[in-house]
Design brief:
Helix 2 (about 115-125) packs across helix 3. The longest helix has 8 residues, at about 20-30. Helices cover about 10% and strands about 25% of the residues. It has 3 helices and 10 strands; from the N terminus they run E-E-H-E-E-E-E-E-H-H-E-E-E. It has about 220 residues and is of the alpha+beta class. The protein has one domain: 3-methyladenine DNA Glycosylase, Chain A, CATH 3.10.300.10.
């Protein structure tokens, strides 16, 4: 448990991550905090946007139909980080969920910075409000790297902290950049805090339109 003048960083128990329904975990992560304590410097952000991925029958999931050295961490017991490189430059962080062997995960897509904001600005060389409003930008702001894949999220390097702010509505829509997944691209498995201006983009109301092919990494 970490404490400063503003926040009490209380971690959930392991059972939070072991639930079978990855979409429910993705929703429940909204409003919680993603915290990094790298090199003793604490940065934290409220989770605003998530995407759920199921390791069984979801063609958008990296683990679907194949088990590779990169995705091996997804088969571990829930509550660890799956971090991978996108386009060779963007470090994206996912929360592994479910019991060992199931390979479900939740991608963290946007944060609202709440601690270490000046440090985040320096890391990104960016001063505007949308400091962590994309899956690639938030890891840059928090100095989260692919080398940290497999990190236990109940430890002191990267962790999820409980939130006591749940007074918000959730909007859901299709995931971003998964047009390769056929019909699975239309699953409404992206979740955002409704009305928050710091999400990567608002959800689309028509879930049957062609999936978006670009991602908000920049």
């Amino acid at each position: 448990m970490h404490e400063n003048n503003t926040f009490l960083y209380e971690k959930p128990d392991r059972l939070f991550f072991l639930r079978e329904d990855v979409t429910q975990v993705a929703k429940d992560l909204l409003g919680m905090l993603l915290v990094s304590g790298k090199n003793g410097v604490v940065t934290a952000g409220k989770i605003l946007e998530t995407e759920a991925y199921c390791g069984r029958g979801d063609k958008a999931c990296h683990a679907n139909g194949k088990r590779t050295p990169r995705t091996e961490v997804m088969y571990r017991e829930g509550g660890v980080a799956y971090i991978y490189l996108c386009y060779g430059i963007h470090h994206l962080i996912n929360i592994v969920t479910n019991v060992e062997g199931q390979a479900d995960a939740v991608l963290i897509r946007a944060l609202e910075p709440v601690e270490g904001i000046e440090v985040m600005r320096e890391r990104r060389n960016f001063t505007k409000a949308k400091l962590a409003s994309g899956p690639g930008t938030l890891t840059q702001a928090m100095d989260i790297k692919v080398s940290q894949t497999g990190t236990d999220l109940l430890g002191d390097e990267i962790w999820i902290a409980k939130s006591y702010e749940k007074d918000f509505e959730i909007s859901e829509g299709t995931r971003i950049g998964v047009d390769y997944a056929g019909e699975d691209a239309f699953r409404p498995w992206r979740f955002i805090i409704k009305g928050n201006k710091l999400v990567s983009r608002p959800v689309r109301s028509d879930k049957r339109k062609s999936p978006v092919t670009t991602s908000e990494f920049h």
